[in-house]
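Reading a protein record of the kind used here takes only a little practice. An example makes this concrete, so a full record is given next.
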Amino acid sequence: MSGWAIRGELILNCNCTVFCPCVVSLGKHPPTEGYCQTWGGVRIDEGHYMGEDLSGLNIGLLIEIPGLMARGNWKAAVFIDDRASDVAYEGLVKIFSGQAKGTTGLFKVLVSEFLGAERAPVSYTNEGKTRRLVVGKAIKGEVVPVPGASPDEDVVISNTEYWMGPDITVATATQGRVRAYGRVWDFDGRSAEICQIDWSGPAAEQAA
């Protein structure tokens, strides 16, 4: 298996009021507060990096954007599941820093300051419609879909060109605490997103 691939689920919670305008505007509309502060989590159901299995691992993310998403100048950090092998760790750092190109290659273009990558205990759990992410003492988050007209169906923005995936479930945070890299954030009640992801990229020799 050359290259890399990740299938699973991603959640994000940012400082925007519900709902974040970047999903539809693709970063052409400014965040509701004028700047973006985001934590996120990825649950890898199936995945590999150059033949190394990534299945079952979880990722935590911290992203800060000073204005329009599309203009770049992002700051970002990644927390890699401490159960990852050394090879998986290195591969995931390359994927989430954009070095491995493919779906997440935009990080290499948009992120001007990579704050760091570190191993941490990362727990991503689903309980009914609730998603919870705990990253050591750095991130403690919980998001739930916003109610729709039918209680059995989520409110979903579908067929978008959003980089994460075409179908985004509109959600809100019931907890969104970050204490990492000098950031102290609390986004309880703010905008959140849930997305099924299917990402991939080229082989390492092509991504160098």
About this structure: Residues 84 and 90 are 9 Å apart (CA to CA). The chain has four helices and 13 strands.
